[in-house]
Amino acid sequence: MLLARLFGRRLFAAAAHSETYSTTAAAAGATTARSGHNPLEEFFEKDRIQDDDKPIVYGRSWKASELRLKSWDDLQKLWYVLLKEKNMLMTQRQMLHSQNLRFPNPERLPKVRKSMCRIKQVLTERAIEEPDQRRSAEMKRMLSSPFHKSSPEMGFISSSPATLVLLLLVISSCCFSSTIDAGGIPSTLDGPFKPVTIPLDTSFRGNAVDLPPTDPRVQRNVTGFVPEQISVSLSATHDSVWISWITGDFQIGEEIQPLDPKTVASMVKYGTTNSSLNNVANGNSLVYSQLYPFEGLQNYTSGIIHHVRLQGLNPSTTYFYQCGDPSISAMSDVHSFTTMPASSSQSYPTRIAIVGDLGLTYNTTSTVDHMASNNPDLILLVGDVSYANLYLTNGTGADCYTCAFPDSPIHETHQPRWDYWGRYMQPVISRVPIMVIEGNHELETQVKKKVFESYSARFAFPSEESKSHSTMYYSFNAGGIHFLMLGSYIGYHKKSHQHKWLKKDLASVDRKVTPWVVATWHAPWYSSYAAHYREAECMKVAMEDLLYKHGVDMVFNGHVHAYERSNRVYNYELDPCGPVYITVGDGGNREKMAIPHADEPGNCPDPATTPDQIMGGFCAFNFTSGPAKGSFCWDRQPDYSAYRESSFGHGILEVKNETHALWTWHRNQDMYSSPGDQLYIVRQPEKCPVKAKRRSRLDNPKNQS
Predict the structure, then answer these.
(1) What is the 3-state secondary structure (H, E, C) of 63-131?
(2) 660 labelled catalytic
(3) Does 84 reside within a domain?
(4) Distance separating alpha carbons of residues 519 and 475, to the nearest angstrom
(5) Residue 483 domain-assigned (yes or no)
(6) Is residue 133 a part of any domain in this protein?
(7) Where do the Calcineurin-like phosphoesterase domain residues begin and end (predicted)?
(8) Domain limits at 55?
(9) Is the pLDDT of residue 248 over 70?
(10) Residues 455 and 442 sit within 8 Å (Cβ to Cβ)
(11) Catalytic one among 306, 441, 482, 532?
(12) pLDDT tens, 289-303?
């Protein structure tokens, strides 16, 4: 207890004077803190520079493979030292911010947190694997204390050195909860951040192999017209959702006979308890076909696809439902969903999962498992869904779109991959609403230039409610957030229907009701990876000014199979009022990971190969200003790129209030709750004002037809 008091007193001394410390005093405090012999020096890089004028940086990040080589006691000591380093860094950060000075090493905080999480993971593994049950129980009890509870609750009875270290950890954690927990995560106010590239971690790479048709998770497990592939999607406002499903099996072959949608009813029974589904809604149904009138190619026709809109729902309310046709005893099991909060600056969904380029590989299953474990209220899928177009009609696959079957008379698809995807995803998206926007892999060209048939048929969209009248772009509200789902593969120039609709939609947003505006589309404008580098430049030229003028806060994209987060940026220049652009094309698809960066020697793409014809032509000329002036690529990681990493994963967005939102990116190879990249995105309406407009049509459910 004496040790705890002394240590707590010493740490409090640093925090108590944070408001009056100067930068010089902070450096002097750092010097005092490291003036004595450090018995744990062996854990750290011994050749680090001893410069008294710089903040203390004890060490480096630790990989799980390194930590597994250390003893139980050494891991506890290392966790303690990392916590001390984290506390110290946070104290320095607060001191500098109080003087409007930039924190010099913001990248250290996430590295320390990651190492601490990995230590906890390794210690937990040791406790679980311990063969002595009594010892295992003691280890688990010790583990739970510093990470989750305070010492009085645990009732420590051991006086071993390891336990004393843990006790000291508990007390210091409790004492500094206000200073550490409140400020341990960086925010956009700390930026712009120095660009960071996380080296490729090859030890966690799995093969990007698709689930086979024989996998039980993708096989049809119903008969007749019993519903399958059930999903929920949002309407434009909280009081309405769409329920979608498929009845009857698909057909594939040279000769097919489409099912008649009129043979089965489209009905949903629903209520607020699973025993009283007293409300009934009816909808519409359709069948689509993917036809390839060439010798040897197989045609496809879908099962009957149903879409039913439920209206008059209460906000933030759980509803139970069954879908199908009761007249022929073809009803689903009872499922449930929860509506979004009403549009208000004070109400938001708790967690929004954002993922792109998902596909249906074993990596996909890891992504979906991680995503589901985070209990999202809403899922945004920013394009590239099933990757059915990486297959011939007979089911033969390829590893990339551009190398797939050059001798075929038309770019083929294997449409059953869509059905496999819907079956695999049903356990999640039958209860969590999913909102989808198209990617290039949804194009699926048929004869007579028919495109996006499967994408447009299988999902329900609030196209009519948001007045876009298109499945390729639309908008909706979720609490105090207005979402824009834009199309990269349909006209976006200033005279296009999409651009005109976007201009009207943005003008109608009332930031007093929906303070946050979040945009998504598939192909990123700001990406430093060689893959698809500056491919969407024409869309950027056409729309960036409009988004900037209306103060769009965040943009999420896919297409590039890696993770990248930008600083606030506008027109390639750092701008405190620009959006934060985040690429999450790392869902796990068959085309594997994007690794090379355009700024690395030999990786800058040839401008002549950059245009994608379906993206609208070539606009990506050499830069005319800035560090890359006269060049097509930067010669280093661009200033706009704050963080990039080639790993599969997903992101979680948690909007806390009208000015603060927490973004967390999770790697598949980490524990479910471990953050890979984390940042508070902070709105500054007083610095970046957006004139409040009249109340949007989406903000008033009573006006909905």
Answers:
(1) CHHHHCCCCHHHHHHHHHHHHHHHHHHHHHHHHHHHCCCCCCCCCHHHHHHHHHHHHHHHHHHHHHHCC
(2) no
(3) yes
(4) 9
(5) no
(6) yes
(7) 351-563
(8) 2-184
(9) yes
(10) yes
(11) 532
(12) 999 999 999 999 999
